[in-house]
Amino acid sequence: xxxxxxxxxxxxxxxxxxxxxxxxxxxxxxxxxxxxxxxxxxxxxxxxxxxxxxxxxxxxxxxxxxxxxxxxxxxxxxxxxxxxxxxxxxxxxxxxxxxxxxxxxxxxxxxxxxxxxxxxxxxxxxxxxxxxxxxxxxxxxxxxxxxxxxxxxxxxxxxxxxxxxxxxxxxxxxxxxxxxxxxxxxxxxxxxxxxxxxxxxxxxxxxxxxxxxxxxxxxxxxxxxxxxxxxxxxxxxxxxxxxxxxxxxxxxxxxxxxxxxxxxxxxxxxxxxxxxxxxxxxxxxxxxxxxxxxxxxxxxxxxxxxxxxxxxxxxxxxxxxxxxxxxxxxxxxxxxxxxxxxxxxxxxxxxxxxxxxxxxxxxxxxxxxxxxxxxxxxxxxxxxxxxxxxxxxxxxxxxxxxxxxxxxxxxxxxxxxxxxxxxxxxxxxxxxxxxxxxxxxxxxxxxxxxxxxxxxxxxxxxxxxxxxxxxxxxxxxxxxxxxxxxxxxxxxxxx
Length: 495
Prior knowledge:
two-stranded antiparallel sheet, 1% strand, 22 helices, mainly alpha
């Protein structure tokens, strides 16, 4: 490994180092509240390295830098996700200040594990080799398993065990699919897979080969678990309910962003020659995920379980964009599909984080995650109720919010890719989701409160709420700048 390789890895290395620093400080400091500040301020180091790498790309003829034996690439696509993950981590840490104060002995481990997982997510978006992809995926998942079980009560322990066992199974399936792909192509490099598939496919067989067909199905299953797509979503409700609420928020957006980052890179770059086949597969998974997620969410009485099924439905909406990238376009142009996925991920991140941050603040006072416990919050906590209602409106996809623009880009991409039937399914599911989303707003504003005590929020979580709420509004009114960045980031997928 050269110094240049270390420079390319500098955001991930500095983030992992920050995690170790936080854990060490936890052992020597008595004031544990400092750990959150160190975690947020320390993100400036990986941020600075990422900005430096972005600037260096302008001097590269092909807009990318490759290192570590061609298993790692730094381009605008990977850097886009590095910035997104760092932003999510900063906001989740800010929202965790009050929640984590009751953990006492394990605050350093809490922040450290979150930072270790984030370093894996950032690495995952930059991998160009199936082996390095698998390693990055495990680095992402294992700290999340520990965080899911962090509360050490019956539900949290159950969440951790389920997450660990099902994650291990999905990883085994994914690894088997990668092995079959390697057996058929003789390489684990994505670019080489693309080149070798072009000369060895049988047009009379689905996916060009029975072995490749099975391999791709298994890879989709492995990644489907990470993004909570049906039928690989069985872990989501219990893990979301049992895990600490800030970790649930982190799982719902950061893990999903990293999952879609590697899906876009692996399938569009590695399996581009069979894009029509896997696009049809993702279109079906999209329709099923949207429908199952929304229908089951209707029956939920716990707001964390409701949002768990909601995130399954939103995985379906995101797969609309994945399915829409199969049709290649002339050189010099781009498609709305992949750039729409990136925009939707940012929009969904600020929206879902705003919802969860409000839920954390309310649940900390009420001691319950049941939807009924949110009764009368319009009077008891008007600020939190407005933020939560605004986030719900965005999740529903009503203008002028980030969620509306995200769905607009997804459906536009589907229409341009002749997937009108998928747009119809998406619109119908958006209407179905109104039932359970608006139920929360009705409870907050039309049901009498259980008490009259006002709910106050500490400064750090309040700042996180303001930032996410402003993000929802800004992306709904001014989507252009982010969409421009997203288009530049996905340009690497069309080479």
